[in-house]
Sequence to fold (337 residues):
Amino acid sequence: MTNPSALHPLAISIGDPAGVGPELICAAWALSATAALPPFFAVGSKRVLEKAARRRDLHMKVRAITSPDEAAAVFDGALPVLDLGETDYTPGAPDDAGAQLALDALATATRLVREGMAGALVTGPIAKSRLARVGFTHPGQTEFVAEACGVSAEDAVMMLAGPSLRVVPITVHVALHSVPGLLTTDLITRRSTIAAAALRRDYGIARPRLAVAGLNPHAGEDGRMGHEDAAVIAPAVAALQAQGIDARGPLPADTMFHAAARETYDVAICMYHDQALIPIKALDFDEGVNVTLGLPIVRTSPDHGTAFAIAGTATARPGATVAAIRMAGECARRRHA
Fold:
């Protein structure tokens, strides 16, 4: 496997063509000069992107390429797209043909980055239920990309990052009542170690500071409100400290996210989905980026879904897509350096 070079344009999979992904890719290209974005190319359908640009009233060119090597020369004058074939484009009306295009685009973009032909991977939003209809067997794109890279799903760590906050949920898409049984000292230690290593390698933070949240109110309050904080989380913090990682906790989650507290750490390690995602969506809703840590490639995604209800209305804001492209480029350059 070849490490991605920062000299290569980034690959962006189109996502579900019935969602907001295509129009936001076009909007990001239109903003690329003012937003100082690195060159990128879309993987998907030239026809879909052209129609998406027109619906958004973007007067821009979309040009088909046959190889990522052509993207840099095209980028200043047109959005380059590795065209995988035509499909109908009806915003807000997902179908199996669109799901197949999304899956093909994801697989192709992932392969190009793995092979070193693209600098990093940015994935557009998909509809998991639709992908399942065309043979997609993974819980989500993160697990698909991890498997393609030879990384176990347990070691592909999700981080949500924005201008104000970075968060890592230790457990993700599981019912809240299942969380205590899934949390182990080893799981917290392993995923926190992966997060610390990624902050050093991809974000240039020489000594990352980790704030580890408790599970229960007041971090258990000495066992009065649950035993997991003392029995499971505290030993994980001790193990991280023994590795030389600057980790603190378990900390009461209700006091971790105000402005002064955020100044004291580089990433918040949270125990479950909403504990992590509520604060970052409150603070950085339009600029949140989903980053997969622990991979041999750089992979980011805008932190939102397909938004079928507003697809094609030109009201979806491109901030998260712009941020995902920018962050992917910055991380790829650091790895290359």
The chain has two domains: 10-150+297-336, 157-281.
